[in-house]
Amino acid sequence: MVSILLLLATMINYMDRQVLANMSVRITDQLQLSDPEYGNIEWAFGTAFAFGSLAFGFLVDRVSVRWLYPAVLVAWSAVGFATGFVWDYRSLLICRAMLGFFEAGHWPCALVVTHTILSQQNRPFGNSILQSGASFGAILTPIIIAGFFMINEDKQAWRPPFQIVGLVGVFWVIAWCFAIPRGSLDRDKRTEHRESDGTPWFIDLLMNPRFWALAIMVISINSSWQLIRAWLPKFLQTGRGYSENAALLFNSAYYLATDVGCIGAGFTAMWLTRKGFSVHGSRLLTYTVCSLLACFTCLAAILPQGWPLLAVLLVVGAGTLGLFPCYYSFTQELSSANLGKATGILSFLGWIVASPLHRVLGEYVKSTGSYDLGVALVGLAPLVGLAAMLALWPKEKAG
Fold first, then answer.
1. What confidence tens digit (pLDDT) does each residue in 235-255 have?
2. Domain count, the chain
3. 208: left (phi over 0), alpha (psi -120 to 50) or beta
4. How far apart are CA 25 and CA 44, in angstroms?
5. Which of 167, 230, 240, 255 is the most exposed place for a label (fewest CB within 10 A)?
């Protein structure tokens, strides 16, 4: 039951996030936003997400997840609902920044939950279920939008989808409160005590080469996933000439592929462990394969409109989301006592570095009229994370 609730929370998180991306061409045209301004909006979302990751990462180690989690979800759902009332660039920028801040609370809460209830061997698959909710949310969002546009051709028809998606979170909170009993998610304080040797937690973290390997990894995979997430509809419509409806339908197929990749990555890592691979080795091999699949963006960048382009993008989707269950499982090996802080700091680094790239891509598109070079480069980023893991993760501690 907890795993289902985690999947649904991630689904709602991504539905609120993806409403804008799926209607980006329509909204930017109506509000008369340039590509750099759209890039700024994504930058604001990501920067706020970074600081939210820090805030909630520290908070989750001090406050009961049973109460913090639903509070965070209500907050971001309310902001998503309010986005349907924006009237210009500035109001949209503010709403997206607030959405990013509160949505950031989902991940430290969710990772504390999976760390608490799952064994080390089962965490990759559990994390893949958690992350797969992103795909379900991203699959449903364009379908909801396309269906709504079929019955409402008004120029303001982009507003209600924000409000519809924003209301979904209320039902999750009700289910969570009934399904999770008091004390069921309390962490073992004895384990936390054993981890402490008197060294301040932040010094211990910064002196750990595993932390720096993961810092580079999260920057690389977040840059790849978030840039594709935000710009794919524009790439398809403006860059390759697909209609809005065709782009919406493909977006659902794309995120179905990401779900296959995500679940497949978690299952593969778990299966390899059961076949005799070390825990670390199984995760690393799975991450390597997913990184190579992400590199297919280089092929997508040179393909014209047609089924080969769409097929390649599906491969890219499977690879880029499959990276995350591996990363989450690596992260959960850093610290039990300070898991929230560690994940919060890592998420902060991933978002604070990746977010300005939206502005860079927007300026590039404005000056060249092409998305191709940006699309090609973002798929190569996960290889940097792989190199960092191979170089910095201590081999004697693997497994």
1. 999 999 999 889 988 988 998
2. 1
3. beta
4. 18
5. 167
Tokens read off for 219: 């920057």
* Residue 183 domain-assigned (yes or no): no
Please report the pLDDT score of residue 194 as a whole number.
Answer: 47
Residue reference for tokens 């500035």: 90
pTM score over 0.70? yes
Residue 214 belongs to a domain with what CATH number? 1.20.1250.20
Boundaries of domain holding 164:
2-178+200-397
The residue to which tokens 């995979």 are assigned: 221
Residue 20, classed as helix, strand or coil, is: helix
Q: DSSP of 254-287, one letter per residue?
A: HHHHHHHHHHHHHHHHHHHHHTT--HHHHHHHHH
> Which one-letter amino acid corresponds to residue 123?
R
Where are the extended beta strands (E) located within the chain?
none
- As given in the structure block, the two tokens for residue 166 are 């924003």
Cα separation, 262 vs 371, whole angstroms: 26
Kindly give, in sequence order, each residue whose CB lies less than 8 Å from that of residue 275, ignoring residues fewer than 6 positions away: none
Q: Could you tell me if 326 and 4 are in contact, meaning their C-beta atoms sit under 8 angstroms apart? A: no
Domain membership of residue 241 (yes or no) is yes
First to last CA, the chain: 29
Closest CA to 127 of 227, 223, 270, 256: 270
365 occurs within a structural domain: yes
